[in-house]
Task: structure prediction
Amino acid sequence: MANTIQHFRDTLTIDQGTILALTVQGGDTIVFGARSITLKALVSGFSYVIAADELNVAPGAVTAITTDNPEAPSSITVLARTINGALNLACSGGAGDNGADGEPGESGVETDPETGRPVILPGGAGGNGENGGDGAPGGNITVRYAAATTTPTGTAPGGAGGAGGKGGAGVDVVAVCGRLIERLTKRRSGEAAAVSGSDGRGRCR
Result:
């Protein structure tokens, strides 16, 4: 079950070290409150509420997170009187799972019941790969402020769909026939074995 973790100070810096030093687990909401906050980085897997009289966004701040839970997507809420620096938030949905690969095609090699020789028929086509999974929906972003040196921005796109699985491999009849001929040749140790193409009935001879 997700929890709400509160972290209040007179001044504080929000970065990876600060976040991971808290007793938090995936899906928790972290509430940061201070007179002055410096924002350097956020970490995916959590929701955030940032409340400050003055929010200073460090140059190159990492303020993009990914949310993978379609039932309870992450959110970022910023409440500040003044925002200094470029606050560009993103809460993107995670990509969907890739589809499973298709099954390999069935062998086209059968044994002639009369002669015991292999009969090479067309091999089966490989199975279709499965569809990729849906991407997770984007999260929620809310920014409220009285003044800002740069207009804050926020994006929350849904995640990309997973890649479809690869089709199963078909059977290479020529390669199969070649391997069978090689095996038969090895069995006839000491004999001169002439190998030609297949006859009209599709049998190796």
